[in-house]
Every structure is written in C-alpha cells, then in structure tokens.
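Board notes (copied after class):
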Amino acid sequence: MIFDNRETAGRLLGEWLKEKLGKEGNYIVLGIPRGGVVVAKKTAEILGVPLGVLIVRKLGVPENPELAFGAIDPDGNIYLDKSTVEYFGLTPQVIQKVAQEELKKIREREKKFERGIIRDFKDKDVIVVDDGVATGMTVEAGVEYLKRKGAKRVIVAVPVCPKETEEKLKRYANEVYCYYSTTTSPFAVGMFYRDFRQVEDEEVQNLLQ
C-alpha cells in the first residue's frame, strides 16, 4: 500500500480510528514532530478532538545517525536498544553525549511548538500519532512518558509499520492501531508515501494554530 501524502494517511487513519474507538473516551491526539503532526492534524480533525505534540527524540549511532540505538523523552529519560548498543560498542559517555544533544533539541522544539504542548494527561485517553514507525524506539519512549504522567490510556496509531514493531509496541501501549502492517524488508517509512517531503518547523507551527 502506498499513501499519496501525510494528509491522506491522516485522513484514512482518522476514519479507521473513528470506527475502532467509538465515542466513549476523553481523547486527545499527540503528533510526533515533524511529519507526525501533519498526520495527526487530519486524524484529530476527523475524530473531533484536541491536537498537541509529543516531543521525543531518537538517539542515533554517531557514525550513522539514522540508525537508532535508543530514544529520549522530555524528562530526559533514556530508553536503549541494548543489542544495538552492544553491537556498536557504545560507551556510557557516548550515550550521554548523544542524549544531551537530543535533549537540547527537545527543549528548542518545546519553545517553537509551545502552542501544542500539553502537560496535563490525567484521566485522558491519549492517541500518539506518527507518520510511521520503524523500530518503534521513539514511540516507546513517548508511551512510557505519558503513562508516567498519568494518562488513563495510551493508544498508538500510525499509517504504516513493520508487523514485528506493531507486536512489540503492544507490550507498552494499551492499544496499537497500524493501518498498514507489513513484513516488507528492509523497511523505511518513506517507501510507503508518494510524497514524503521534509516538513519544516513553520508548517508544524501553522498546524498547531
């Protein structure tokens, strides 16, 4: 399956969730910047619920930043993929250096996307949306963060993900909805979009207005 763009993916995801979730619930939708916010905007509109952002960051291997060895949440908690850490021989010093750099980026984005920051999750059913997940490390960090902040339920909803990642996320989230779950290997989120252009900060800011 190929989505035309993130907006289309968000609309399809929203319509599907409307059937799956029903009307009972105190829902909010949180998009993971940047691309996830484009998807989340459409999803939130269709569900008729508030939109915010969840700023979590991937921790990338220094020699190959696109390859995640973990993730970090807004409180600075670090989540590691131990097998990747061991494979690349990443020392605690290297891990802390990368984590501090990414935490700084979280703080910068919190200022840029202040309009979308939600701090009270008590008794809320939180739907975490991204444009897709590969390893799921970043989403896992977000789910654990929201549970610690008192969310009633944490639901992960994405247009596309590997079947293996979908099953893994079910161990952390209350519910996981992946519109198109695939065994395609190798996997990259952009493979499933005709238009997967980079989303700029200004576009995210406009979506949050």
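Comment from the instructor: The first helix runs from residue 6 to 21. The beta strands are 27-31, 51-53, 57-61, 64-72, 78-80, 125-129, 153-162, 175-182.
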